[in-house]
Amino acid sequence: MLESELIEKLNSMIRLDNDALSSYNKVLDNINEQVIKSEITKYRDDHLRHVDNLSGLIIKYGGVPTRDDKDIRGLFLGSATAIQNIAGLQGSLMALQTGEKLTNKDYSEAVSWNVPEDVLLILKDNYEDEKRHLRFINQAIADKVWERR
Ligand SMILES: [Fe+2]
Ligand SMILES: [Fe+2]
Question: CATH code for 3-142?
């Protein structure tokens, strides 16, 4: 893979992670349930770490990390307006589930790229985080955590 292509692909992952990051921040404002909130906060921090480690790789390979937080195919969770209209914990979790399906799909493709070993290791690490995020959110929805009071 050409370095220019590598940088472009890593920047597309940054856009997605940046978008996930801002979506998580918006959703966190609507979550009051403490156990869920602390877990979702950890995942928000994971996305921040992903942006940092992807940015580090881009700089190492001579590129400039994008600052654009809009995924080019659309948004992690739909428009900001849609997020503002999300009702309660159930709506928040379902919105995050939609977004995490997207990050999981993208990272599952990214780990099959023909890229240098150091890049692949980070993509694989990030993908493990994304799998954990989706697993937790799927379980929380299956358990209908919003009915626990
Ligand atoms: Fe991420
Ligand atoms: Fe995630």
Answer: 1.20.1260.10
